[in-house]
Amino acid sequence: MRGAETRQGIELIENMMSVVTYSPFEQFEVHRIIPLQFGVLDLSITNSTVYMLYAVLIYQVLYKINIAEGKLVPGR
Question: The pTM is what?
Fold first, then answer.
């Protein structure tokens, strides 16, 4: 009896793990947000593109703020 209960418990855990399996590499998957295809040329907007544009935007805003205030060069 104990062996059957143990086997059922193991099967339950295996079934749960197969449904909820998570890989840390999933965060690096590239997903198409806006698919753009011109013949063989793929110019799709992906999650990677969005993050790069966000980083450039933040950089530009911080750069413009520092230049406008004159705080980029110390002692001014």
Answer: 0.56
